[in-house]
Design brief:
This protein is mostly helical and 271 residues long. Helix content is 75%, strand content 0%. It contains ten helices and no strands. The two termini are 50 Å apart.
Length: 271
Amino acid sequence: MTPSTDPAPPLAPAAPAPGARRPDRRWGLIRLASPFAFLALWQLGSALRLIPQEVLPAPSLIVEAGVELLENGQLVDALTVSGIRVLEGLVLGGVVGVALGTAVGLSRWVEATVDPPMQMVRALPHLGLIPLFILWFGIGELPKVLLVALGVSFPLYLNTFSAIRQVDPKLFETAQVLGFSFWQRFRSIIVPSAAPQVLVGARQSLAIAWLTLIVAEQINADKGIGFLIMNARDFLRIDIIIFGLIVYALLGIGTDAMVRALERRALRYRS
């Protein structure tokens, strides 16, 4: 009898060892616990007077300063004002950045005429334009919003421009064969293909927006988180200054998490 030539059945994938995921969980727990360990060491150093209170107050004092601002209503008012400034700057800068990036990405003629001036302006440190903005627009809300918008626009412009230019040309060839109009190509090909990189630009823009606001609100401001920090400086309240900086950091992390959640939801088709 001839031996059977039937192929051997595929081997089942080996089950992971019971302790295979333990290292991952261990490192995750370490990452989670490290900030609390840092705060505990900070508090201990302050209690032992190893860290001077006039240089770096203890975490408990910073928390008390935050509770004080929350109870007297100053924190809520400052968050409202700063949030509106960032939102207005994001909308204005986002519209300009995405619109110009789209136009430059779609047209070689627009790229030749618009991109060189944009790159020249991008090379300028936008925070260095604060004195000029004050002379042009005064000391009210407008220069602060415009500074945020200026910082926000360039990451979105560059990422939108790059994303459109990196769309697979074969998709455009297929759309041409199928007789797609420009708006059909834009809606069905360009937007889905460019969305991931544009959302990366949005995350970068959010970080720049809060960084710009930190500086803008400390110059000729009479409200907002930056005003709280500057007012605390005049009264030597280092605890309030550090608390304000922590609020800025938490706002940046929170808004970045929101964009990441939007990214996962909008791009779930890719998983």
